[in-house]
Design brief:
- This protein is an alpha/beta fold.
- It folds into two domains: about 200 residues, Glycogen Phosphorylase B (Rossmann fold), CATH 3.40.50; about 180 residues, Rossmann fold.
- It contains 16 helices and 13 strands.
- The protein has a seven-stranded parallel beta sheet with strand order 3-2-1-4-5-6-7, with helices on both faces. Strands 10-9-8-11-12-13 form a six-stranded parallel beta sheet, with helices on both faces.
- Strand 8, helix 8 and strand 9 form a beta-alpha-beta unit.
- The protein is globular and about 70 Å long.
- The chain starts with a helix and ends in a 15-residue tail after the last helix.
- About 45% of the residues are buried.
Protein backbone atom coordinates (compact mmCIF):
# COMPACT_ATOMS: atom_id res chain seq x y z
CA UNK A 1 0.00 0.00 0.00
CA UNK A 2 1.43 3.40 -0.90
CA UNK A 3 2.05 6.07 1.71
CA UNK A 4 -0.50 8.29 -0.02
CA UNK A 5 -3.25 5.70 0.26
CA UNK A 6 -2.33 4.67 3.79
CA UNK A 7 -2.08 8.20 5.11
CA UNK A 8 -4.97 9.96 3.48
CA UNK A 9 -3.81 10.75 -0.07
CA UNK A 10 -1.69 13.86 0.57
CA UNK A 11 -1.20 15.17 -2.95
CA UNK A 12 -1.04 18.95 -2.62
CA UNK A 13 0.48 20.88 0.28
CA UNK A 14 2.19 24.11 1.24
CA UNK A 15 4.89 25.08 3.70
CA UNK A 16 4.74 28.39 5.57
CA UNK A 17 8.06 29.69 6.88
CA UNK A 18 11.27 31.41 5.88
CA UNK A 19 12.96 30.23 2.68
CA UNK A 20 16.34 30.64 1.05
CA UNK A 21 17.99 32.84 -0.13
CA UNK A 22 17.04 34.38 3.23
CA UNK A 23 19.94 33.52 5.52
CA UNK A 24 18.74 31.74 8.63
CA UNK A 25 18.32 28.23 9.94
CA UNK A 26 14.57 28.04 9.33
CA UNK A 27 14.98 29.25 5.75
CA UNK A 28 17.46 26.45 5.12
CA UNK A 29 15.22 23.94 6.90
CA UNK A 30 12.16 24.90 4.84
CA UNK A 31 14.11 24.64 1.59
CA UNK A 32 15.59 21.28 2.59
CA UNK A 33 12.24 19.89 3.73
CA UNK A 34 10.53 20.88 0.51
CA UNK A 35 13.38 19.45 -1.56
CA UNK A 36 13.34 16.18 0.42
CA UNK A 37 9.57 15.79 0.05
CA UNK A 38 9.83 16.47 -3.68
CA UNK A 39 12.72 14.05 -4.05
CA UNK A 40 10.98 11.19 -2.29
CA UNK A 41 7.42 11.94 -3.47
CA UNK A 42 7.78 13.60 -6.89
CA UNK A 43 4.05 13.38 -7.61
CA UNK A 44 3.28 15.61 -4.62
CA UNK A 45 2.70 19.32 -5.33
CA UNK A 46 4.59 21.16 -2.57
CA UNK A 47 4.65 24.97 -2.66
CA UNK A 48 5.91 27.59 -0.22
CA UNK A 49 4.54 30.78 1.32
CA UNK A 50 7.60 32.66 2.57
CA UNK A 51 7.81 35.08 5.48
CA UNK A 52 9.66 38.20 4.33
CA UNK A 53 12.33 39.74 6.49
CA UNK A 54 11.25 43.35 7.17
CA UNK A 55 14.76 44.56 6.32
CA UNK A 56 14.96 43.35 2.73
CA UNK A 57 13.40 41.49 -0.20
CA UNK A 58 14.66 38.27 -1.77
CA UNK A 59 14.86 36.68 -5.20
CA UNK A 60 13.00 33.50 -4.29
CA UNK A 61 12.91 30.31 -6.38
CA UNK A 62 9.80 29.32 -8.32
CA UNK A 63 8.47 27.10 -5.52
CA UNK A 64 7.77 30.24 -3.42
CA UNK A 65 4.32 31.21 -4.69
CA UNK A 66 3.54 34.00 -2.22
CA UNK A 67 5.25 36.10 0.43
CA UNK A 68 4.04 37.72 3.65
CA UNK A 69 5.61 40.92 4.96
CA UNK A 70 6.24 40.10 8.60
CA UNK A 71 4.46 43.06 10.18
CA UNK A 72 1.75 43.60 7.52
CA UNK A 73 -1.39 42.28 9.19
CA UNK A 74 -3.42 42.50 5.98
CA UNK A 75 -0.91 40.24 4.22
CA UNK A 76 -1.80 37.41 6.62
CA UNK A 77 -5.44 37.61 5.54
CA UNK A 78 -4.40 37.63 1.89
CA UNK A 79 -2.26 34.54 2.50
CA UNK A 80 -5.16 32.72 4.16
CA UNK A 81 -7.35 33.40 1.14
CA UNK A 82 -4.61 32.23 -1.21
CA UNK A 83 -4.05 29.01 0.74
CA UNK A 84 -7.77 28.25 0.92
CA UNK A 85 -7.99 28.70 -2.84
CA UNK A 86 -5.24 26.15 -3.51
CA UNK A 87 -7.28 23.09 -2.47
CA UNK A 88 -4.45 21.97 -0.20
CA UNK A 89 -4.48 18.69 1.68
CA UNK A 90 -2.28 20.09 4.48
CA UNK A 91 -0.27 23.16 5.53
CA UNK A 92 3.11 22.67 7.21
CA UNK A 93 4.02 25.65 9.42
CA UNK A 94 7.61 26.27 10.52
CA UNK A 95 7.23 28.16 13.78
CA UNK A 96 9.70 30.43 15.50
CA UNK A 97 8.42 33.38 17.53
CA UNK A 98 10.65 35.92 15.80
CA UNK A 99 9.64 35.30 12.18
CA UNK A 100 5.95 36.21 12.52
CA UNK A 101 4.58 39.68 13.17
CA UNK A 102 2.85 41.04 16.25
CA UNK A 103 3.81 40.54 19.88
CA UNK A 104 5.40 37.09 20.21
CA UNK A 105 4.29 36.34 16.64
CA UNK A 106 0.62 36.94 17.40
CA UNK A 107 -0.29 37.59 13.73
CA UNK A 108 0.10 33.88 12.92
CA UNK A 109 -2.95 32.53 14.81
CA UNK A 110 -5.20 34.94 12.94
CA UNK A 111 -4.08 33.38 9.67
CA UNK A 112 -4.49 29.83 10.98
CA UNK A 113 -8.05 30.50 12.17
CA UNK A 114 -9.12 31.28 8.60
CA UNK A 115 -7.78 28.08 7.04
CA UNK A 116 -9.89 25.19 5.85
CA UNK A 117 -7.12 22.59 5.55
CA UNK A 118 -5.38 20.73 8.43
CA UNK A 119 -2.29 22.38 9.90
CA UNK A 120 0.86 20.61 11.09
CA UNK A 121 3.17 22.95 13.00
CA UNK A 122 6.87 22.24 13.49
CA UNK A 123 8.04 23.97 16.65
CA UNK A 124 11.65 25.10 16.33
CA UNK A 125 11.60 26.72 19.78
CA UNK A 126 9.64 25.68 22.86
CA UNK A 127 10.31 27.92 25.83
CA UNK A 128 10.53 26.32 29.29
CA UNK A 129 9.36 29.58 30.88
CA UNK A 130 7.25 31.49 28.33
CA UNK A 131 6.05 34.92 29.34
CA UNK A 132 2.26 35.44 29.37
CA UNK A 133 2.22 36.75 25.80
CA UNK A 134 4.35 33.90 24.45
CA UNK A 135 2.20 31.37 26.28
CA UNK A 136 -1.04 32.82 24.90
CA UNK A 137 0.24 32.76 21.32
CA UNK A 138 1.69 29.26 21.62
CA UNK A 139 -1.45 27.80 23.12
CA UNK A 140 -3.58 29.26 20.32
CA UNK A 141 -1.21 27.77 17.73
CA UNK A 142 -1.46 24.44 19.53
CA UNK A 143 -5.26 24.63 19.46
CA UNK A 144 -5.34 25.43 15.75
CA UNK A 145 -2.86 22.71 14.73
CA UNK A 146 -3.95 19.14 14.11
CA UNK A 147 -0.46 17.90 14.91
CA UNK A 148 2.73 19.30 16.40
CA UNK A 149 6.20 18.24 15.30
CA UNK A 150 9.16 18.46 17.67
CA UNK A 151 12.77 17.46 17.00
CA UNK A 152 13.71 16.18 20.43
CA UNK A 153 12.21 14.17 23.28
CA UNK A 154 12.79 17.14 25.55
CA UNK A 155 10.69 19.32 23.25
CA UNK A 156 7.85 16.80 23.47
CA UNK A 157 8.14 16.77 27.26
CA UNK A 158 7.95 20.58 27.39
CA UNK A 159 4.76 20.56 25.31
CA UNK A 160 3.17 18.06 27.67
CA UNK A 161 4.36 19.71 30.88
CA UNK A 162 4.17 23.44 30.05
CA UNK A 163 1.18 23.49 27.69
CA UNK A 164 -0.70 20.30 28.58
CA UNK A 165 -0.54 18.86 25.05
CA UNK A 166 -1.54 15.18 24.92
CA UNK A 167 1.20 12.86 23.67
CA UNK A 168 -1.09 11.56 20.91
CA UNK A 169 -0.97 14.98 19.20
CA UNK A 170 2.86 15.16 19.07
CA UNK A 171 5.15 13.69 16.43
CA UNK A 172 8.88 13.43 17.21
CA UNK A 173 10.73 13.81 13.90
CA UNK A 174 14.48 14.51 13.98
CA UNK A 175 16.11 17.43 12.21
CA UNK A 176 16.96 16.33 8.67
CA UNK A 177 20.58 16.12 7.57
CA UNK A 178 22.28 15.92 4.15
CA UNK A 179 24.59 13.14 3.06
CA UNK A 180 28.25 13.92 3.91
CA UNK A 181 31.23 11.74 2.88
CA UNK A 182 32.77 9.94 5.86
CA UNK A 183 36.25 10.16 4.33
CA UNK A 184 38.02 11.72 1.35
CA UNK A 185 40.62 14.32 0.39
CA UNK A 186 38.57 17.32 1.48
CA UNK A 187 41.32 18.85 3.63
CA UNK A 188 43.63 19.12 0.65
CA UNK A 189 40.91 20.71 -1.46
CA UNK A 190 40.40 23.38 1.20
CA UNK A 191 44.11 24.02 1.68
CA UNK A 192 44.09 22.35 5.10
CA UNK A 193 46.16 19.27 4.29
CA UNK A 194 48.24 18.04 7.22
CA UNK A 195 46.13 19.95 9.79
CA UNK A 196 43.89 18.74 12.57
CA UNK A 197 40.71 20.66 11.75
CA UNK A 198 38.30 21.97 14.36
CA UNK A 199 35.09 23.45 12.93
CA UNK A 200 32.15 25.59 13.99
CA UNK A 201 29.66 26.76 11.38
CA UNK A 202 26.48 28.82 11.34
CA UNK A 203 25.41 32.43 11.62
CA UNK A 204 27.48 34.36 14.16
CA UNK A 205 25.84 35.87 17.23
CA UNK A 206 27.05 36.65 20.77
CA UNK A 207 25.30 33.60 22.24
CA UNK A 208 27.44 31.22 20.14
CA UNK A 209 30.38 31.27 22.56
CA UNK A 210 33.00 31.02 19.82
CA UNK A 211 35.43 33.22 21.76
CA UNK A 212 35.91 30.42 24.31
CA UNK A 213 37.17 28.02 21.63
CA UNK A 214 39.55 30.73 20.42
CA UNK A 215 40.83 31.12 23.98
CA UNK A 216 41.36 27.34 24.13
CA UNK A 217 43.52 27.30 21.00
CA UNK A 218 46.91 28.21 22.60
CA UNK A 219 46.65 25.18 24.87
CA UNK A 220 45.59 22.95 21.97
CA UNK A 221 48.45 24.21 19.79
CA UNK A 222 50.97 23.48 22.56
CA UNK A 223 50.25 19.77 22.00
CA UNK A 224 49.08 19.81 18.38
CA UNK A 225 50.86 22.66 16.57
CA UNK A 226 49.20 21.83 13.23
CA UNK A 227 45.65 22.29 14.58
CA UNK A 228 43.42 24.93 13.02
CA UNK A 229 40.02 26.25 14.09
CA UNK A 230 37.71 27.14 11.20
CA UNK A 231 34.82 29.51 11.94
CA UNK A 232 32.47 29.22 8.98
CA UNK A 233 29.65 31.73 8.72
CA UNK A 234 28.64 35.38 8.49
CA UNK A 235 27.05 37.51 11.18
CA UNK A 236 23.35 36.87 11.71
CA UNK A 237 21.49 39.47 9.60
CA UNK A 238 19.41 40.72 12.53
CA UNK A 239 22.47 40.98 14.79
CA UNK A 240 24.31 42.81 12.03
CA UNK A 241 21.43 45.25 11.59
CA UNK A 242 21.32 46.07 15.31
CA UNK A 243 24.96 45.79 16.34
CA UNK A 244 26.94 45.84 13.12
CA UNK A 245 29.89 43.44 12.92
CA UNK A 246 30.97 43.98 16.52
CA UNK A 247 30.85 40.32 17.55
CA UNK A 248 32.74 39.01 14.52
CA UNK A 249 35.33 41.78 14.83
CA UNK A 250 35.75 40.98 18.53
CA UNK A 251 36.43 37.33 17.62
CA UNK A 252 39.03 38.34 15.05
CA UNK A 253 40.72 40.70 17.50
CA UNK A 254 40.75 38.00 20.19
CA UNK A 255 42.51 35.62 17.79
CA UNK A 256 45.07 38.30 16.85
CA UNK A 257 45.78 39.20 20.46
CA UNK A 258 46.49 35.53 21.24
CA UNK A 259 48.93 35.22 18.34
CA UNK A 260 46.71 32.81 16.41
CA UNK A 261 47.24 34.15 12.89
CA UNK A 262 46.71 31.28 10.49
CA UNK A 263 45.50 29.01 13.29
CA UNK A 264 41.99 30.51 13.55
CA UNK A 265 40.49 30.92 10.09
CA UNK A 266 37.33 32.97 9.53
CA UNK A 267 35.16 32.45 6.45
CA UNK A 268 32.80 35.41 6.65
CA UNK A 269 30.03 34.17 4.37
CA UNK A 270 26.83 32.14 4.23
CA UNK A 271 27.97 29.02 2.38
CA UNK A 272 26.14 26.76 -0.04
CA UNK A 273 25.13 23.22 0.89
CA UNK A 274 27.89 21.84 -1.35
CA UNK A 275 30.57 24.01 0.26
CA UNK A 276 29.34 23.21 3.75
CA UNK A 277 29.53 19.49 2.97
CA UNK A 278 33.18 19.90 2.00
CA UNK A 279 34.06 21.66 5.27
CA UNK A 280 32.19 19.07 7.33
CA UNK A 281 33.97 16.24 5.55
CA UNK A 282 37.33 17.91 6.28
CA UNK A 283 36.70 18.41 10.01
CA UNK A 284 38.25 16.16 12.64
CA UNK A 285 36.23 17.66 15.50
CA UNK A 286 33.07 19.74 15.42
CA UNK A 287 32.45 22.17 18.30
CA UNK A 288 29.23 23.91 19.38
CA UNK A 289 30.18 26.15 22.34
CA UNK A 290 26.71 27.70 22.58
CA UNK A 291 25.68 29.64 25.68
CA UNK A 292 21.85 29.28 25.64
CA UNK A 293 21.32 26.08 27.61
CA UNK A 294 17.58 25.95 26.85
CA UNK A 295 18.16 25.51 23.08
CA UNK A 296 16.09 22.49 21.98
CA UNK A 297 17.24 22.17 18.35
CA UNK A 298 20.39 22.86 16.37
CA UNK A 299 20.64 22.13 12.69
CA UNK A 300 24.42 22.59 12.80
CA UNK A 301 24.82 19.97 15.54
CA UNK A 302 22.48 17.56 13.73
CA UNK A 303 24.48 17.98 10.51
CA UNK A 304 27.80 17.38 12.26
CA UNK A 305 26.68 14.32 14.20
CA UNK A 306 25.04 12.72 11.18
CA UNK A 307 28.18 13.43 9.14
CA UNK A 308 30.09 11.21 11.53
CA UNK A 309 32.08 13.95 13.23
CA UNK A 310 33.53 13.70 16.69
CA UNK A 311 31.62 16.42 18.56
CA UNK A 312 32.37 18.57 21.60
CA UNK A 313 29.56 20.79 22.85
CA UNK A 314 28.32 22.80 25.77
CA UNK A 315 25.41 21.06 27.53
CA UNK A 316 22.43 22.83 25.98
CA UNK A 317 19.28 20.75 25.90
CA UNK A 318 19.52 19.44 22.35
CA UNK A 319 23.21 18.56 22.74
CA UNK A 320 22.55 16.56 25.92
CA UNK A 321 20.01 14.48 24.03
CA UNK A 322 21.87 14.08 20.75
CA UNK A 323 25.30 13.36 22.25
CA UNK A 324 24.16 10.86 24.88
CA UNK A 325 25.48 7.30 25.02
CA UNK A 326 28.99 8.19 23.91
CA UNK A 327 28.06 10.06 20.72
CA UNK A 328 29.89 13.20 21.84
CA UNK A 329 31.49 15.08 24.73
CA UNK A 330 29.92 17.83 26.84
CA UNK A 331 31.92 20.66 28.43
CA UNK A 332 30.76 23.52 30.67
CA UNK A 333 29.89 26.87 29.13
CA UNK A 334 32.59 29.54 29.06
CA UNK A 335 35.35 27.05 29.95
CA UNK A 336 38.33 27.23 27.56
CA UNK A 337 40.36 24.88 29.76
CA UNK A 338 37.74 22.14 29.40
CA UNK A 339 37.67 22.64 25.63
CA UNK A 340 41.47 22.40 25.51
CA UNK A 341 41.45 19.21 27.56
CA UNK A 342 38.76 17.45 25.52
CA UNK A 343 40.05 18.51 22.11
CA UNK A 344 43.56 17.36 23.02
CA UNK A 345 42.16 14.10 24.36
CA UNK A 346 40.34 13.35 21.12
CA UNK A 347 43.16 14.42 18.80
CA UNK A 348 45.53 12.21 20.79
CA UNK A 349 43.32 9.11 20.66
CA UNK A 350 42.48 8.08 17.11
CA UNK A 351 40.62 4.94 18.18
CA UNK A 352 38.32 6.85 20.55
CA UNK A 353 37.66 9.55 17.97
CA UNK A 354 36.83 6.98 15.28
CA UNK A 355 34.51 5.09 17.63
CA UNK A 356 32.65 8.32 18.41
CA UNK A 357 32.37 9.13 14.72
CA UNK A 358 30.86 5.75 13.97
CA UNK A 359 28.33 6.07 16.80
CA UNK A 360 27.26 9.47 15.46
CA UNK A 361 26.98 8.28 11.88
CA UNK A 362 24.91 5.27 12.97
CA UNK A 363 22.56 7.51 14.95
CA UNK A 364 22.33 9.89 12.03
CA UNK A 365 20.89 7.32 9.64
CA UNK A 366 17.41 7.99 10.99
CA UNK A 367 18.01 11.72 10.41
CA UNK A 368 18.69 11.57 6.67
CA UNK A 369 16.36 13.83 4.70
CA UNK A 370 14.62 11.00 2.77
CA UNK A 371 13.72 9.29 6.06
CA UNK A 372 12.61 12.58 7.62
CA UNK A 373 10.48 13.39 4.56
CA UNK A 374 8.68 10.08 4.96
CA UNK A 375 8.00 10.80 8.63
CA UNK A 376 6.53 14.19 7.75
CA UNK A 377 4.20 12.63 5.20
CA UNK A 378 3.00 10.21 7.86
CA UNK A 379 2.32 13.14 10.19
CA UNK A 380 0.46 14.97 7.41
CA UNK A 381 -1.66 11.90 6.83
CA UNK A 382 -2.57 11.65 10.51
CA UNK A 383 -3.48 15.35 10.45
CA UNK A 384 -5.83 14.81 7.52
CA UNK A 385 -7.55 11.96 9.32
CA UNK A 386 -7.96 14.03 12.49
CA UNK A 387 -9.21 17.03 10.51
CA UNK A 388 -11.84 14.98 8.70
CA UNK A 389 -13.15 13.81 12.07
CA UNK A 390 -13.62 17.35 13.40
CA UNK A 391 -17.21 17.98 14.52
CA UNK A 392 -17.07 21.63 13.43
CA UNK A 393 -14.80 24.10 11.59
CA UNK A 394 -12.18 26.07 13.48
CA UNK A 395 -13.58 28.83 15.68
CA UNK A 396 -12.98 31.97 13.66
CA UNK A 397 -14.26 34.46 16.19
CA UNK A 398 -11.75 33.59 18.85
CA UNK A 399 -8.67 35.82 19.11
CA UNK A 400 -5.47 35.70 21.10
CA UNK A 401 -5.90 37.90 24.17
CA UNK A 402 -2.47 39.31 24.89
CA UNK A 403 -1.69 40.33 28.44
Amino acid sequence: MSLYTAQGAVRRMAILGNHTPRQCGIATFTADLRSAIGGRFPQLDCRVVAMNDPMRQYDYPECVRMTIAQEDLAAYGNAARYLNGCALDVLSVQHEYGIFGGRAGSHLPGLLRELRMPVVTTLHTILPEPDPCQRAVMEEIIRLSERLVVMSAHGAALLREIHGVPARKIDLIPHGIPAVPFQGRHKERLGLGGSQVLLTFGLLAPDKGIEYVIEAMPGILARFPEAVYVVLGASHPHIKARQGESYRLMLEERARSLGLAGRVIFHNRFVSQEELTGFLAAADIYITPYLKLEQITSGTLAYALGAGKAVISTPYTYARELLAEGRGILVPCRDPAAITREVAGLLGDDARRLAMRRLGAEYGRAMSWPVVAGSYLESFGRARQAHSARPAPRERSRHVVLP
